[in-house]
Amino acid sequence: MVEENKKKPNPIDMHVGSRIRLRRNMLGMSQEKLGESLGITFQQIQKYEKGTNRVGASRLQAIASILGVPVAFFFENAPDHEPGRAGGFSEDASSSYHVDFCSTPEGLQLNRAFVRIGDPKVRRKIIDLVKALADEGVE
Question: pTM above 0.85?
């Protein structure tokens, strides 16, 4: 039966893939460049990013190294599939809005420009400015 080929990707694999795409885009790196660094094709990177192919442990470690993040980065805010597990003080799954924002063209541009600012005082002033502008619209 062809049913197996239509199998839905695992939510964790999809999450890990989306985090790979997020970090790669934050760095302005193409799928081709990441694939080249790993010795694989950009099509394989696409499959990882969509979650259709699972990333093995050693490959994930290599990706983390290339993208300059710890492996744990790929699992931040991952969906929890343990039935009956209490949420406690953990954030709601809908709080992944920051990941969604960073995936937008505006979010990527803002993030790339912000990380190029070396002076922490200037960064703080920008954060204060953005907060003030956001509060202005609330009143």
Answer: no
